[in-house]
């Protein structure tokens, strides 16, 4: 069988595992030619809000429980249509191991909500479950492989180490803000600044871990407010209190 036929077989196999007419399906259709495509003009024609995120490129890169991830390159190029330097994306034609999140069993979800008293960590407001997102502290963009199945008997200590609660309501989605910050960190090596505050409770703005993905990379997240907002806030309050004492 020729390489062209193998490529078409792979494309059809991937398409069969993506929901038809979804944003992700349209993004894959665009990138399946393995050519460079401008995110600003071509991407916006598909879905300006979801093209780069979990519903588009990011989701294709992660894969799912039954579909491998795609190796997608991104770089900045001059776009003659946009008349500016923009982000361009290209599927290399290669696949990789999925790094998707495992489903959290309903029983475990309820325990997580109860441990955190149904309270989002940033605004510290008690909310109904549908306005909360169970956030993995360590962003899946850096996992490197699929998450193992969650045990419903997970200890409270393990839950607090792994998860935090973020809000998702009509006025905003903090989980989405975190995802965008983590994407910028991966692209630029500059860590996040929640609420625009340039403070890190360990380290500074620079990503210093020699590892970009995998379990070893989690060390590079420690100190960023998006990784542990409660620790970040407590450290910031302590710093302010110490400054007042030294006035």
Instruction: Kindly state the percentage of residues in helix.
Output: 25-40%
How many helices? The count is: 8
Give the termini distance in whole angstroms.
77 Å
Neighbour order of strands in the largest sheet: 1-3-2
What fraction of the residues are assigned to beta strands by DSSP? 15-25%
What general outline do the C-alpha atoms trace? globular
Largest sheet: 3 strands, antiparallel
Order of helices and strands: HHEHHEEHEHEEHH
Which class of secondary structure composition applies to the elements? alpha+beta
Count of distinct structural domains: 2
Unreliable stretches (pLDDT < 50, length at least 5) are none
Quick one: how many beta strands? Answer: 6
- The Cα radius of gyration reads 20 Å
pLDDT average, as an integer? 90
Keywords: Endonuclease, Hydrolase, Nuclease
Organism: Gloeothece verrucosa (strain PCC 7822) (Cyanothece sp. (strain PCC 7822))
GO molecular function: endonuclease activity
Protein name: Putative restriction endonuclease
What does this structure look like?
- It comes from Gloeothece verrucosa (strain PCC 7822) (Cyanothece sp. (strain PCC 7822)).
- Keywords: Endonuclease, Hydrolase, Nuclease.
- This is Putative restriction endonuclease.
- One of its GO terms (molecular function) is endonuclease activity.
- The chain is α+β, with helices and mostly antiparallel strands.
- It folds into two domains: 3-96; 106-242, no CATH class.
- 35% of the residues lie in helices and 16% in strands.
- The protein is built from eight helices and six strands; from the N terminus they run ααβααββαβαββαα.
- A three-stranded antiparallel β-sheet has the order 1-3-2.
- Strand 5 and strand 6 (172-173) form a beta hairpin.
- It is globular, with a radius of gyration of 20 Å.
- The model has no long low-confidence stretch (mean pLDDT 90).
């Amino acid at each position: 069988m020729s390489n062209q036929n193998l490529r078409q077989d792979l494309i059809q196999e991937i398409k069969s595992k993506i929901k038809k007419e979804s944003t992700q399906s349209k993004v894959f259709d665009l990138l399946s030619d393995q050519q460079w495509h401008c995110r600003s003009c071509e991407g916006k024609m598909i879905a300006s809000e979801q093209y780069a995120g979990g519903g588009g490129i990011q989701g294709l890169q992660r894969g799912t429980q039954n579909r491998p991830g795609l190796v997608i390159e991104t770089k900045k190029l001059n776009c003659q249509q946009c008349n500016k330097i923009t982000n361009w994306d290209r599927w290399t034609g290669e696949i990789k191991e999925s790094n998707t999140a495992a489903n959290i069993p309903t029983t475990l979800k309820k325990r997580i909500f109860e441990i955190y008293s149904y309270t989002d960590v940033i605004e510290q407001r008690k909310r109904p479950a549908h306005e909360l997102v169970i956030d993995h502290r360590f962003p899946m963009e850096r996992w490197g492989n699929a998450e193992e199945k969650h045990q419903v008997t997970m200890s409270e200590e393990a839950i607090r180490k792994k998860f935090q609660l973020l809000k998702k309501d009509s006025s905003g989605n903090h989980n989405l803000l975190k995802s965008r910050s983590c994407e910028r960190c991966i692209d630029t090596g500059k860590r996040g600044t929640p609420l625009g505050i340039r403070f890190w409770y360990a380290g500074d703005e620079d990503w210093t871990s020699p590892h970009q993905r995998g379990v070893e990379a989690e060390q590079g997240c420690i100190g960023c407010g998006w990784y542990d907002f409660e620790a970040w806030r407590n450290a910031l309050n302590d710093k302010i209190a110490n400054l007042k004492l030294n006035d």
